[in-house]
Specification:
Strand content: under 5%
Oligomer: single chain
Distance between the termini: 54 Å
Structural class: mainly alpha
Number of strands: 0
Low-confidence stretches: 1-15, 100-105
CATH topology: Arc Repressor Mutant, subunit A
Radius of gyration: 15 Å
Number of domains: 1
Helix content: 55-70%
Number of helices: 7
CATH class: Mainly Alpha
Length: 107
């Protein structure tokens, strides 16, 4: 009964949309290389969950969550979880990966 009360965890794996830019495809390919558990952690991170919440939802230790997040950051070549979450959101919703240079040239 308790499991019915918890929100369902999204299935891990490839992005939900096809990236339209080379940089988006690069990130999508990087995420596709993650293990199933790392991909699940990435989904939860993208949803905005804290390490503590991720650990509780997946019934793993905080140290394991931190290890998975370190793997995600290294795989995506980003410095922090916010950057990783933004990449996850862009891939999930098919948002553009335009660089700062490209967006400033369009103005």
């Amino acid at each position: 009964m308790l499991s019915n009360a918890l929100p369902q965890i999204k299935s891990p794996g490839a992005p939900r949309t096809t990236p339209t830019t080379p940089i988006g495809a690069t990130y999508a390919n990087a995420l596709a290389q993650l293990t199933g558990r790392c991909a699940t952690v990435m989904d939860l991170l993208t949803d905005g969950h804290s390490n503590k919440e991720i650990a509780a939802r997946l019934k793993i230790s905080m140290a394991t969550v931190k290890a998975h997040i370190s793997t995600i950051l290294r795989t995506l070549d980003v410095d922090n979880r916010t950057q990783a979450a933004l990449i996850g959101l862009r891939l999930r919703y098919g948002l553009d990966f335009a660089t700062t240079d490209q967006s400033s040239q369009q103005k």
